[in-house]
Amino acid sequence: MTKIGVVIFPGSNCEYDALSAMTTLGAEADFIWHSTETIEGYDGIILPGGFAHGDYLRPGALARFSPVMGAIADFAKAGGAVLGICNGFQVLTEAGLLPGALQKNRGLTFLCQPTTLIVASTRSVLTRGAVKGQELSIPINHFSGAYTCDDATYEQLIENDQVVLRYKDNPNGSRDDIAGVSNVEGNVVGLMPHPERAMSTLLGSDDGRVLLEGFLRALVSAA
Description:
The protein is built from five helices and eleven strands; from the N terminus they run βαββαβαββββαβββα. The strands form two sheets. A nine-stranded mixed beta sheet has the order 2-1-3-4-11-10-9-6-7, with helices on both faces. A two-stranded antiparallel ribbon has the order 5-8. The protein starts with a strand and ends with a helix. Helix 2 (67-77) links the parallel strand 3 and strand 4. By secondary structure, it is α/β, with parallel strands linked by helices. The protein has one domain: Rossmann fold (3-Layer(aba) Sandwich). The longest helix has 15 residues, at 208-222. The model has no long low-confidence stretch (mean pLDDT 96).
């Protein structure tokens, strides 16, 4: 059975959503406290949403120094699948595992609402089960979710097909409507929307399954 580790930082608040989504899809999942220095035995790692270390300085700026991040960096370098959702995406950019940064939303407004995403690439571990151009209804819940990067980084993202998801109607001012990116290899992915909150039509949408089922299938195929 595929085993997923969900990292908890002081201030994380979406860890149970992430763990529930993984177990619902048939994976084994448990929590990893941020002071853990080794992550052996896991097929994939999820950094969930929340406010790691209270988002002091800026979101993810302190979490990057947690001991677990060294182990995650080694895991990713070896080809392990790492997924950062919302605050987890912010942590991955601060840690240098993903390019760019997340800044305050346009209008300095906290956003909590459904959004429509467009799958921009299927070469990442998160989007391999989707179809390019597919539209997905996935909610957002953030204040610092506008993706930004310099021109050189943007050109590399486009050249290497690293933009994995875009907003259909940009809610936060992200550059080029970017909602999620991967590293060059495609095994590390970050996105601001919450697929773990779109697991059932009873709650508005089950489109998150397209992404998270694809994530788990990618781990099985890589094993």
